Amino acid sequence: MPKIVFKYSSVYDKTFRQFLGDTVKDYPSARKIKNYMENVKKLRVKLEKQTFLLIAKISHLKRKDEQISCYMIGKVRSFSDPLTIRLYKNKNDFIDTLIHELIHQIIIQNREELKEYWKFLRKKFKNDSTVTQNHIVLYAILEELHPLLFKNQKRWKREVKRVSINPDYTKALEILRIEGGEKLKNDLIKRI
């Protein structure tokens, strides 16, 4: 099972801090980021093994690394490569974002195995943005994963509401609703 290692890089964080410049007055200090990082380590340990097992079972994809570096920053967007997560007031938002980005990572790591899938997807949803296309199967995986991991549907519904501020994500969720998660996952699995 891979292990997530949370890291703080002053150079990396400073780059984001400078990028934002005067637009953000309350950018967290290095100390605050490091303290946050220590707190979320405890959350990660509880979910790590089960999360990776479920993602692999649902997606039929395997992680190709033993250790995952997760850089912590104060603000800006979280993203998957390199895995970078910002601070969230709500720890559930942190966990949900981390899982979202870990699914992106496993898909990126299996790029070669998924060439046919991406050709199929790009053609089938050619009128949709690349961001939407990249989130279609991700949300199909998350829709199945959330109730298994968190033992209820409320968490999934909350996640849908949280990400629906992004029109590309909303479109991916609409495609999920119309096509159905099982069909979307099968489109992936049969092209691995």
Quick summary of this structure?
The protein is an alpha/beta fold and 192 residues long. It contains 8 helices and 4 strands, in the order βααβββαααααα.
Count of DSSP H/I helices: 8
Structural class: alpha/beta
Strand content: 5-15%
- What is the number of strand segments? 4
- Low-confidence regions: none
N-to-C SSE string, H for helix and E for strand:
EHHEEEHHHHHH
Overall form: globular
Tally of distinct domains: 2
N/C terminus separation: 21 Å
User: What Rg do the Cα atoms give?
Assistant: 17 Å
Q: Helix share of residues? A: 55-70%
The pLDDT mean sits at 92
Strand order of the largest sheet: 1-2-4-3
Please give a structural write-up:
With 192 residues, the protein is α/β, with parallel strands linked by helices. The chain folds into 2 domains: 3-109, no CATH class; 115-189, no CATH class. The protein has 8 helices and 4 strands. The chain has a 4-stranded mixed β-sheet, sandwiched between helices. Strand 3 (79-80) and strand 4 form a beta hairpin. Helix 2 (30-59) packs across helix 3, helix 5 crosses helix 7 and helix 5 (130-150) packs across helix 8. The longest helix has 30 residues, at 30-59. It starts with a strand and ends with a helix. The model has no long low-confidence stretch (mean pLDDT 92).
